[in-house]
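Hi Q.,

Before the meeting this afternoon, I wanted you to have the zinc ion prediction in hand. No need to reply - just skim if you have a minute. The sequence and ligand are here:
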Amino acid sequence: MKKEDFNDGLLGFLDASPTPFHATQNMVGMFKNAGFKELNEVQKWELKAGEKYFVTRNDSSIIAFTYPKNKNYLMVGSHTDSPNLKLKPNPIIKEHGVVKFGVESYGGLLLNPWFDRDLSLAGRINYLNHQGELESKLINVKKKIAIIPSLAIHLDDKANKDKTVNKQTDLCPILSTNDDFEFDMFLRWQLESVGVQNIKEIYASELSFYDTQNASYVGLHDDFIASSRLDNLLSCYVGMLSICSIDNDKPMLFIASDHEEVGSASTSGAAGTFLENTLRRMFPDYEAYVKMTRSSLMISADNAHAIHPNFSTKHDSNHAPHINKGVVIKVNANQRYASNTETMAQFMKIAQEVGEPIQQFVTRSDMGCGSTIGPITATKIGINILDVGLPTYAMHSIRELAGKDDAYSLYMILLGFKN
Ligand code: ZN
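Predicted structure with the ligand bound:
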């Protein structure tokens, strides 16, 4: 696949995946097209050598794997979730001439970039049908239905100096001046618009706001890719395409987990049992299971902080990645990243063989360090892990910025593994 086609596909995937549910649904479609067979966690598995499979949990996490005779797996780990504003269960607030939504912030989001954006809503609705059965459906409103207007500078003379944002009071998106709006009717319309007619009662919904501005190339030579949710749909996309591009006889596993941005502790998060349960069913014999985990390698792929040209002192100058200069290996002495010299060497050897550059990141010693699913998976499963990232500006903003070369570079390295 050429880099241009790869990047065009990435923009489409970003736009079509406003929530972890939609990202997972899109990956399901991709895996089905590529010949992967769907597994269901609540049914018996009868895996056949030479086939390839995928399984989802909570509609928001996914694992895909090949199943050849050779069992030294190359695994790629990523996450489907991104910081956002989520609707509260009873969200409607009617005051001061408008209808607005109460929201809860999810993950460590940068709050200021959410002002003055044309917002829409997407997520999952759970309802009862007329036969008394529970069902769920994903919805994506797409229309620009809400906005969080800034407070004018005339009313806030400290706006450019000491701006703080109160998550409870300052961030409610407004959606109408007409106060006959009913939330239940709104959800019902959304379900009907995607063909669901058999609705007796709507019980629950998990809906997130997102920016309706599409992902795009930016820069004199289209140097950058600007989008919401680059962290970490960028790595989901690379992992998904990698496992779809390799032969069935190459052992590879891809996992994209939900809830990384809030610590991964959930049934569908990396601290849950999803990966372990799947691996144990792939390797029912305990001896074979342990041998596989100890002979395999996981590349935990997430984003990395590129050195910001306007805030360069925030980086250690010897470990300051640049955009479009290659995949970043992330190291932390305190194990916030799971890389070790063995896994670094394995990755560097392949990168050198396929002619792709690599960079290294260590956070400043006087600053805290983020983390990834890497250390959690290393702890839970006992697999050797390398934490890598694609250099990014504005991580956790509603519009993040990455380079046009780096995701493709990671893709080429992953295809270069010959396990
Ligand atoms: Zn991330």
